[in-house]
Specification:
There is one protein chain. By secondary structure, the protein is of the alpha/beta class. Helices cover 54% and strands 8% of the residues. The protein has an 8-stranded mixed sheet, sandwiched between helices. A two-stranded antiparallel ribbon has the order 3-5. The chain starts with a helix and ends in a 16-residue tail after the last helix.
Length: 743
């Protein structure tokens, strides 16, 4: 009995522990990855307070309108204060002047009930002032309030005015921003009086409409900018003591969205870049940040359930030469403006090329497998198969190449689309040549690992260096949309998911079978930290999704099915990372929390339904509007109707390379989940499809081409390498998981 107990105990402590060891390592690595998700230090809010705040708004004002000759008052204010590029997103695209004024007063994305046909119309509202002191917008304000309550964002026009005791408005646009929800403007003047000092000192918050700068004619814009600057000069001459003055180009004036002027001068804002926790990018603020900034400087509490922006702050990293700083902001505006048109054409071309390659792969797959008998389908010419393989690799590398192309300032060219295309093609050719000429080109899954590694390295280096390539990049995100200003974007997240899991699968396939989960977890944990750390990718939803994908891949990479025990391991690791990150996120200040922290906070406050509604609406909009949806559906169609068929080669690929199968399944899981959590529907999956599906088709072609090669079964090789007692353990998988010679 003792001998039997010793044998059983030794078996539990020996082979059983050896089999559980890799899974324990995988869980420990997944859990330890949360320590990389440390809190980003707060961008800071002004610790100094002011007695007065004056907001001077000029719809359409851009940084290329500001110079020391035509706008000396603005130039001097920018020299002493903090400056940034203002994203003027509202609930109406584009943000017309009335929409911009409403959004300023709501501290949230709002719009008017009247929608302009064609170009944005000038601000025109009926402000009644029967007592000569205040103003009233009448029933029009009430209709606007009711309209915005039914919209996704739930904005309340007048929330800024309701947060202070008294507001002053000068001009019609300012009246829209300063009106209370029932339409009352506390103090109102149609134009700035000759001596505005007493008017500006009446209330702690004053909003002044200093004019509109519109059109594309340089001389017209110059004239309008001079008029706005003259009004601003009068405001600055009469500004109350101990006051903060903010200048904002708070709206677009035509159908083309642009970045606009943001200047803040006063306590806490001296000679720096403007930023906020809502952008986490030096030199960028949102229109919805202005209302929280005003209240924060005045020492007022923020209506957090109504405001979506965060108080702005000043960073001292601005160049000493103001002309250089203004030039950089103007250049950012040009890049953001050019990105929209170039990106639409690029993605259209990418979709067409990849769908054509998917279609061309189908007949090659049907003819790829050699037949021993005299009858059978004649194989396709070798040169044609090799051309398809090279084209598939090039297609898979096109998005990483487009990301690298943004290192070249193509937007400054007279033909930005042509220059971007030329640079992208050149980079794609160079990356493709590095894969084809390398030792990894030989073998069925060698190109999978090479392209995955290149993709992960490109996006990883960009994120580590501040995501400068993704900022306003064709394969990145636009600051005009107001969705993201720093970290990893939607396309970048898809590339990280595909790249990290593909290189992890390739490396795991080359490792000893028991340690494949550990290899998958190690590489995956690096990707989770890269995506989820507030210092780096700052995408909590993406980190949670990638964790789920890595966990699924880790439990599948040794072969076999997703059993209950494997699902339990994956769930445990995924929950550990998610809970750990949530705990860290909730310890941060409310203004600096990520989406997971905001979700938990809103769930505690009973307002999570509004956030869930916004995410659902964003998913629906992305599903219908994004070109990446077409690419995701095209890749799914190729997999369902060709690759997974008996002649498609994918089943054989999965049998020969279980770690690669695990990577593809984990990547699909992560991409779909990330789209749901981030409100981007199939966009992340579309970006991942652009990488993963061409490589899956290439690998399927190669395993079919080598279907008759003599291979050594993995189970047989493991039996030779391990002790006999380990071979006969009850839960060791068997089967023809062969093909290692094709690596």
């Amino acid at each position: 009995m003792r001998l039997g107990a010793a044998v059983v105990g030794g078996w539990v402590r020996g082979p059983r522990l050896r089999r559980a060891g890799p899974y324990l390592v995988a869980v420990l690595i997944a859990v330890s990855s949360i320590f990389g998700l440390v809190a980003r230090p707060a961008t800071g809010t002004p610790t100094q307070q002011a007695d007065y705040v004056v907001i001077a708004g000029a719809a359409g004002l851009r940084w290329d309108d500001v110079n020391p000759t035509d706008t000396p008052a603005m130039w001097s204010l920018a020299q002493h204060g903090s400056i940034g590029a203002l994203s003027v997103r509202s609930a109406h695209a584009p943000t017309c002047p009335v929409d911009g004024w409403l959004t300023l007063g709501a501290g949230n994305l709002a719009r008017t009930e009247r929608r302009a046909a064609g170009a944005c119309q000038a601000t025109s509202v009926n402000v009644q002032s029967p007592d000569g002191i205040g103003g009233n917008l009448g029933d029009e304000q009430q209709r606007v309030v009711q309209l915005n309550r039914t919209l996704t964002h739930g904005a309340q026009p007048g929330a800024l005015a309701e947060a202070v005791r008294c507001t002053t408005a000068v001009g019609q646009g300012a009246a829209v921003a300063a009106a209370r929800p029932f339409g009352r403007v506390d103090r109102y003047a149609a134009a700035l009086p000759q001596d505005p000092a007493s008017l500006l000192a009446t209330c702690v918050l004053s909003i002044v409409d200093i004019g509109t700068v519109s059109g594309s004619d340089p001389s017209t814009r110059r004239t309008q900018a001079r008029a706005a600057d003259a009004t601003l000069a009068a405001v600055l001459a009469a500004r109350p003591a101990d006051s903060l003055v903010m200048v904002a180009g708070l709206a677009d004036t035509d159908q083309v969205a642009r970045l606009h002027v943001a200047i803040a001068d006063g306590p806490g804002f001296a000679g720096g870049w403007l930023t906020s926790s809502s952008t986490s990018r030096p030199g960028y603020v949102q229109l919805t940040d202005l209302a929280p900034t005003a209240l924060n400087v005045l020492g007022k509490s923020l209506p957090s359930k109504l405001f979506t922006g965060q108080p702005a702050a000043s960073l001292t990293s601005r160049p000493a030469n103001l002309a250089s700083a203004v030039s950089a902001l103007s250049d950012a505006d040009r890049e953001a403006g050019a990105q929209t048109g170039v990106a639409s054409r690029f993605y259209l071309a990418l979709i067409i090329v990849e769908l054509l390659l998917f279609g061309a792969a189908v007949p090659l797959l049907r003819r790829a497998r050699r037949h021993a008998g005299p009858r059978g389908v004649r194989p396709a010419p070798g040169w044609l198969v090799r051309a398809e393989e090279v084209a598939l690799v090039a297609a898979a590398l096109s998005l990483p190449a487009a990301l690298l192309a943004d290192a070249v300032p193509w937007w400054r060219s007279a033909a930005p689309g042509l220059l971007f295309s030329a640079v992208t093609l050149a980079v794609t050719a160079a990356l493709t040549a590095s894969v084809v000429a390398g030792p990894w080109w030989q073998g069925a899954v060698g190109p999978v690992g090479a392209v995955g590694g290149i993709t992960a390295a490109i996006v990883g280096l960009d994120v580590l260096t501040g995501s400068r390539l993704q900022l306003n990049g064709v394969a990145g995100y636009s600051t005009l949309s107001g969705n993201r200003y720093a970290g990893v974007g939607t396309v970048g997240l898809g590339l990280v998911i595909a790249g990290v899991l593909l290189i992890a699968g390739w490396l795991a396939q080359r490792a000893a079978r028991p340690w494949r989960p550990a290899v998958m977890a190690v590489v995956g944990a690096v990707g989770v930290v890269l995506v989820g750390s507030p210092y780096l990718g700052a995408d909590v939803g993406g980190a949670v999704a990638l964790t789920a994908g890595v966990c699924v891949a880790a439990v599948l990479c040794t072969g076999g099915w997703l059993t209950f025990s494997r699902l339990a391991w994956a769930t445990l690791a995924g929950l550990a990372v998610t809970v750990g990150f949530a705990a860290l996120d909730l310890r941060r200040p409310a203004a600096d929390r990520g989406s997971l922290g905001h979700l938990l906070t809103e769930a505690r406050d009973g307002t999570a339904n509004a956030m869930a509604h916004r995410v659902a609406a964003a998913n629906a909009a992305s599903l219908l509007d994004s070109p990446l949806t077409v690419l995701a559906l095209g890749g799914a169609a190729l997999a369902a109707f060709a690759l997974i068929r008996p002649w498609g080669g994918l089943k054989r690929l999965f049998g020969l390379y279980p770690a690669v199968r695990a990577a593809l399944i984990g990547g699909t899981t992560a991409a779909l989940l990330a789209g749901v959590l981030d409100g981007t529907a199939l966009d992340v999956a579309g970006a991942a499809t652009a990488i993963g599906v061409p490589l899956a088709a290439l690998a399927a072609l190669r395993v079919l081409d080598h279907a008759d090669d003599r291979t050594v079964a993995e189970a047989v090789r493991a039996a030779i390498a391990e002790p006999v007692s380990a071979v006969h353990t009850p839960d060791r998988p068997t089967g023809a998981a062969a093909g290692e010679v094709l690596l």
